[in-house]
Amino acid sequence: MASTSPATRTVAIIAVGAVSALGLAACSSGDSTGDTNGGEPITIEYVHRLPDGDGMTSVAEIVERWNEENPDVQVKPTKFDGKAADLILKLETDIKAKNGPCLAQVGYAEVPQLYVKGLLEDVAPEAKKYEDNYSAGAFSGMRVGDAVVGLPTDTGPLVYFYNETAFATLGAEVPATLADLEATSASAAAAGKYVTAFTPDEAQYWLSAQSAAAGDTWFSTEGDEWKVQAEGEGSERIAAFWQGLLDNKQTLATERFGEGFTTALNDGSLIGHIGAAWEAGFLLDSLDGTPAEGQWRVAQLPDLGAGAQSGPDGGSGIGVMKGCEHPAEAMQFNDWFNTQADDLASQGLVIAAEGSVETPEKMLRQFGGQDVLAELSTATANLNPDFPYAPGFSTLSKMNETAAAAVAGTAKVADIFSTAQDTAVTSLEDLGLPVAE
User: Fold this and answer.
1) Those residues with Cβ within 8 angstroms of residue 109's Cβ, 6 or more apart along the chain or in another chain
2) Are residue 290 and residue 182 in the same domain, yes or no?
3) Same domain, 392 and 346
4) What is the pLDDT of residues 269-310, one digit of tens each?
């Protein structure tokens, strides 16, 4: 490899398109060909956090089909029941002890820091074989500069959920722009209804995704330094919009995963919601068997100022972990698994793979027969392709605290983005990465 300072090299291998000069591909784990296990079947462990709930095709069932068809490459699925952060900690511990799995589910926002820590392999030569199978926005979630550390599984583009029946009663149209949403919020509030919910417990991903949809890019590089711009024009528009709704009491201010949200949904006062696509799998569960069952629909996110564009609120892929002895075979399974479209859709996932997916019966029933997954697929295709995460993004959870203060009236919505800016800069500096002024 070319000689560079550690800080410069770390920045380079994370910045999109910045590492080709370093010959990073030459340091990848490479292809694994021929007889690599003395004639014995290869065993690959895959650790995941998928729900495996009732009525879903379980990961074990999906993998069993692979194992039957591929006797020389056997996969052992392991379900981790803890939180995502707990899984990352376990992976780090196990890999350092040389006892880690070959494959593991990782969130897109976690990928850069995991790579910096040396926990993910660069499998770019293998990944290139499968790139065309996935949407560009989703595939970019597994990139770290020129390195590619696995393949995408699911996406979380923001969309707009709304109660079609309630909208018709109000004489309201589905909002197409931010101005439309502001006007509809005012008319709905006058009738005792809310067409949005401001959810402080989701601020980190929810508001950063809105900035992305509004055209902002929070993280980029300037020379050999990181550049953080969490307070751009898009963020300013988003902050002004929500501040107006909060000031005028025209949005439901409540935690997304608290009782207030579900109560408002059930009593019909909440009739619209900007949410992640993956919420379609459970958002309306509490309305089953009620008069409101089948009244809701999903639409594209209103234009937040950058055209027909959405932003990423969650999503994950399958990463090839450091020390994987059979990366080529692991990636073969990785691609096969992530293209089992209908099985993964049964898990409530908005899959990253290209192609049509059959909307599960549950969604058809809850959304009045709408082809929900087709609508969510459009949102995935509309993801801002220029919104990479940076190492240390997890520390931006401090945005949630500021968002709660904004609800309480002791802070402004704009302060949430200031928190993101300050926290991101501090986090990068704490990791020893240079940041542009």
Assistant:
1) 205, 389, 393, 394
2) yes
3) no
4) 999 999 999 999 899 999 999 999 999 999 999 999 999 999
